Amino acid sequence: MTAEKSPTLSSEGQAHFQVGKAFYRVKSRIGRDLAVLAATVDRQERGTLRILDAMSGCGVRSLRYALEAKVDFVWANEGNPDLHDLLAQNLADSLQDDTFRITHRDANEVFFECYQQRDFYDLVDIDSFGGGAPYLSTGLWATKLGGLLYVTSTDTRTTGGHNPDQSVQLYGAYARPHPASHEQGARLLIGSAMQQAAARGLAVRPIFAYYNGQVHRVMLRLTAGEPWPAEQYGFLGYCHHCGHYQTLSWRQLGRAICDHGERAADLMPQPMVISGPMWLGHLHDRPFLNQMRALAQTWNWHPQVDLLTLMESEATLPPYYFTLPEIGRRGRMDIPKREDLMAGLRDRGFQVSRTHFDAQAIKTDAAISDCIAVARHCHVASRS
Ligand SMILES: C[S@@+](CC[C@H](N)C(=O)[O-])C[C@H]1O[C@@H](n2cnc3c(N)ncnc32)[C@H](O)[C@@H]1O
Ligand SMILES: [Zn+2]
Q1: Residues 6 or more apart in contact with residue 294 via CB below 8 angstroms
Q2: pLDDT at residue 3 in the model
Q3: CATH number, span 232-280+318-383
């Protein structure tokens, strides 16, 4: 990871700030844009909004929430006191004194103070390094009921299944590798937060999950009194022999055997590789995304409109994706053209979408054997 360090003024959205020795990554901008949109939608609905920016760095988020989402108050906490002058200068240059507060404490200490003081926040943004697990449950202490918690994981090695023991320690879930591992990263994070909230009689549900190629960001809504979604908290099985995925509940774990569909004749049934438990339900809250997209449209944020449109279309499809290279390899043919494959699947009555997790993949309710059959048909049709 590289942090841009510049002695000159940087800008992002309506914020102008010095980066100095703070960690600031230009590539994380979309994650900040999405948060600003979500905060604005909520502020418009609730009439007022207070933000806890628990790991502020140079303060770019606090500035953007204040200037663009026009929230009423921002608490900017940054654990490193050496960044005080930078953060104080950046916020004082653009904000009124009575609209922000700066502290330099461990984020967990801040969350517990909020709980102790009954000073809950409408949006708690935790932009941590690593897996984010140490703050998944504690961030809930500072979040208002009905409010938002924005969590981070940068540990894609673990969520991608390359360190399953670490994933048990971080998320209480065993993560194995498979081609849809970027989506798995978001689902493990959501699942872990759900379980930790449920242990305290609370509930969280995803508003959106975003992956920028390096970092997972998940926006969660905290509520109380919702039933535990047993059907949507479970396991994902993957067959390394044929590429088939299957969702499984705890009770079905003993039956995680793949019969390989149409390839059954030449292959023995095989146990599937199982990851989980994790969130298996809708990845994003479509109506909320729709509101964010309408707002992005009025702000002429065209790339964000395109991204939100894509996220809406992938929101309700099964919890995995098929990569085009895998379809080509398993079908022993060239990599299929995405648009042809999607049109062919739609013609056969399947739902299908691109996915923001991987530009070379599709999400669909079709099986991989259907994808291979359709891709083969597309190849034949293009040759004749
Ligand atoms: C990823 S950077 C934040 C970047 C910033 N939010 C942005 O969008 O540019 C994480 C920041 O959290 C601070 N930090 C790390 N652990 C912390 C903790 N336990 N409590 C408070 N701050 C912490 C680091 O000093 C670092 O500045
Ligand atoms: Zn199989």
Answers
A1: none
A2: 45
A3: 3.30.56.70
Q: Angle formed by the axes of helices 286-298 and 302-314, to 10°?
A: 170
CA of 99 to the centre of ligand 1 (A): 21
Please give the model's pTM, rounded to 2 decimal places: 0.95
Ligand nearest to the CA of 245: 2
- By the CB criterion, residues less than 5 angstroms from ion ligand 2 are 239, 241-242, 244, 258, 260
Which residues make Cβ contacts (< 8 Å) with residue 57, sequence separation at least 6? 22, 23, 24, 78, 83, 87, 127
**CA–CA distance, 59 with 86 (Å, rounded to integer):** 9
Mind listing the pLDDT tens digit for each residue in 302-350?
999 999 999 999 999 999 999 999 999 999 999 999 999 999 999 999 9
CATH architecture of structural domain 9-227: 3-Layer(aba) Sandwich (3.40)
Which atom in ligand 1 lies closest to the alpha carbon of residue 78?
22
Residue 105 alpha carbon to ligand 1 centre in Å:
11
